[in-house]
Amino acid sequence: MKSSFSLMILFCLVQVARAQKLGIGLQEHELKGRVKELTMSIFSNAKTLEDTIQKPEKIAVKFDEKGNVISETDFGSDGKITHKFVYLYTSKNTIIVKHFGFRGDFIERTTTKYDDKGHKIESDNSPVFSAPTKSVFINDKDGNVIERDDYMDKVLKDKTIMKYNEKGQMISAGSYSADGVPNITDSVKYDTLKNSIQHTEYLDGGLTLKRNIVDRNNDQFGNWTLRTIETQKFSAYELNNSNTIIKRSISYY
After folding, report:
1. What are the pLDDT digits (tens) for 83-104?
2. Which residues contact 19 (CB under 8 A, 6 or more apart)?
3. CB of 34 within 8 A of CB of 53?
4. Interval 104-129: pLDDT, tens
5. Are 130 and 32 within 8 A, CB to CB?
6. Least enclosed by CB within 10 Å: which of 18, 56, 65, 249?
7. Cβ neighbours, 10 Å, residue 52
8. CA 199 to CA 187: how far, in whole Å?
């Protein structure tokens, strides 16, 4: 996911923290079954479900029959392509993603490596016009990512520590600077169906920055097709409260 869809990153974090392996594309997108294509329409600052007259940003993801992502194409609210990602799979537990801009120009290459158990261990990002970055992942015995260390030009910049409950659900992700100073922590709550229903961001001193309340509707396969995110903001540094509505169209093999 890209910075223009930062709200999606928040919810994908819960999925990415789980065990990673080839063919994990469905899990990372909170999907199950033989999904062929996923299209997400994102309506920002929508007040109600009916308030979707605005033209949404869109993300279109294609999968192969093994559940691997083949490509992802992002569209702006004007319907024009903003980004495109092409996924390549190797026999050495490695996924290569090539990122192209709206003109078709090559922007960056990301190489993600997995161990023999299918757990993500590192991801190298090589942009064309900026310094390379790298993320190193540490997994627990159950395959959950418990730490992510982020580097830029081989220098540690920050790290994220994840914690889990007895059910293996990620309940918090705290970010820290390279010297260990805590920044922002995201805590997560779930319903009885293991769906994340609340995300709260707060500072080390306990000051709450914002809270996202999540509601969703599912299709007959158990995949969500409508998600409403009510964002409550508590800090003077944040903008007013807002809602985001995400509609998903899913086709199957």
Report:
1. 999 999 987 789 999 999 999 9
2. 118, 119, 139, 142, 143, 144
3. no
4. 999 999 999 988 888 889 999 999 99
5. no
6. 65
7. 14
8. 6
| Distance (Å, whole) CA 120 – CA 79 | 34
pLDDT for 131-169, tens place per residue? Answer: 999 999 999 999 899 999 999 999 999 999 999 999 999
Residues above pLDDT 70, as percent of the chain:
85
Backbone angles phi, psi at 28, to 5 degrees: -65, -25
pTM of the model: 0.84
The class (CATH top level) of 3-66+138-252 is mainly beta
Residue type, 126: S
- Decide if 59 contacts 42 (C-beta within 8 A): yes
